[in-house]
């Protein structure tokens, strides 16, 4: 297909065909475009899969071709504000509150992160829970959401060496992202807490509770007493 780039990074735009029934759209305004496609779907579009500054649009080739779809998507992009995606760029969204027990055995890196930010542990938790984060995209493992919206003061460097196994439910920070591990996997992010919220369950009608564009807020809770 075609590609173009202007002097402003937020105007860069590249379309790439993926076979005869999918079109990749690379643009810093991917999240805003995704919100528009959900609010007002395009005829012939079957599914839109978001990634970081990229959408993969699956379409019915019997109803339209890639050139027609590209023209329609260019029209949608032309109607968006000339700015890159930021918090809230996904438009109207669901909000998921994630209860988290911070620190202790389930959050071994909390004190390190607090010291790195120049805060007490309590102040760090309060600052993190005050942020309205947003699901930028899903990836890494089923149910794992890359949460954007952390201010620079709460962005943490990744571990020098990843842990061999991070327990399911671990709430972690890595670079500009926050995330919650849906299952036990290796991981190199700083673990600050733990949640009992199930993030991937194939027995549910919707196995994953969130999708790109949803808002997420952490809420500090007390650990359950052992009985």
UniProtKB/TrEMBL annotation:
Pfam families: CT_C_D (PF02682). GO terms for molecular function: hydrolase activity. Residues 13-210 form the Carboxyltransferase domain. Keywords: ATP-binding, Hydrolase, Nucleotide-binding. SUPFAM superfamilies: Cyclophilin-like, PH0987 N-terminal domain-like. Gene3D superfamilies: 3.30.1360.40, Cyclophilin-like (2.40.100.10). This is Allophanate hydrolase subunit 1. It comes from Deinococcus aquaticus.
């Amino acid at each position: 297909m075609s590609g173009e780039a202007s002097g402003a990074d937020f105007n860069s735009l590249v379309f790439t065909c993926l076979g005869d029934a999918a079109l990749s759209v690379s643009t810093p305004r991917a999240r805003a475009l995704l919100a528009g496609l959900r609010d007002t779907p395009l005829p012939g579009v079957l599914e839109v899969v978001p990634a970081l500054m990229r959408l993969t649009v699956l379409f019915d080739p019997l109803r339209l071709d890639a050139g027609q779809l590209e023209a329609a998507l260019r029209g949608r992009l032309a109607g968006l504000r000339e700015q890159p995606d930021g918090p809230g760029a996904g438009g109207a969204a669901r909000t998921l509150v994630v209860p988290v027990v911070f620190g202790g055995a389930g959050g071994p890196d909390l004190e390190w992160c607090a010291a790195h930010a120049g805060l007490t542990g309590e102040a760090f938790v309060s600052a993190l829970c005050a942020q309205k984060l947003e699901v930028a995209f899903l990836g890494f493992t089923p149910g794992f959401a890359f949460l954007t919206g952390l201010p620079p003061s709460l962005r943490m460097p990744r571990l020098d060496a990843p842990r061999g196994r991070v327990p399911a439910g671990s709430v972690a920070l890595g670079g500009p992202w926050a995330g919650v591990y849906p299952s036990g996997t290796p991981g190199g992010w700083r673990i600050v807490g733990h949640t009992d919220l199930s993030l991937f369950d194939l027995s549910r009608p919707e196995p994953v509770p969130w999708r790109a564009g949803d808002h997420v807020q952490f809420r500090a809770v007390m650990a359950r007493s052992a009985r």
